[in-house]
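Quick illustration for those who missed Monday's session on complexes.
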Amino acid sequence: MLDELRRLGRVRCSIVSRVQEALLSWFREHGRDLPWRRTRDPYAILVSEVMLQQTQVPRVAPRYLAWLELWPTARALAVAPRDEVIREWQGLGYNRRAVNLHRAAQVIAVSGWPADLTELPGVGRYTADAVDRFAFDEPVLPVDTNVRRVLERTGGAFGPESAAALMDLGATICLARIPRCGVCPLAASCPSRDRRFEPLRKQGRFEGSFRQRRAETLRLVAAGHTTGLDADADAVASLERDGLVEVHAGLAQLPH
Ligand code: ADE
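Prediction with adenine bound:
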């Protein structure tokens, strides 16, 4: 009985590793050459992961390179004036990330990297795992929406060495609504092969949203327009709470 269980365990293990091998072999040929994959520097990888939290890869890539030219180390970013950091973030969206990244760099410059990266401002479970995996080579699998989708559909068990491959498969083949099973390296053993999926959740409209009002207000402040509280008081108050603007004598400006 025990022998039989051991044998089944080995069979399952070899199927798992065959699926993983198929994925890794596909990745060697089709994986994306992304700038943050050419480094192990934890600061550079943190910058990339924070930018990628809510912004697409093609928009992030040039901004990531420009950012590292300006501030190549956590120390350099830590001493940068906050207004420059916020200005440099413009266009990436969700500007609060800039303030958090700046604060994280200040923590790192003073105290070094914490063992638990979620102690850093703006760093949640996924971002911590991604930095641990790609910079510190920790055996964790960071699970973002793309990775989760591939895991759920294939039912596969993949190890940490598959992290980047799973991200690329999710981003280019195992698409949310209409996956490209015809060219998928895992299709042969995939229980979800040729299924179609309803989009789970559409991102709320940006046009006309409070997020848009905040972004526009911040753009005006960053461009040096004198922005009184009467401009869009709710947007100014919300930006102030997030440390993105300061209000002096009723006028909003970027923090220094
Ligand atoms: N490679 C490393 N981290 C990534 C991410 N968050 N998105 C896409 N590719 C990545």
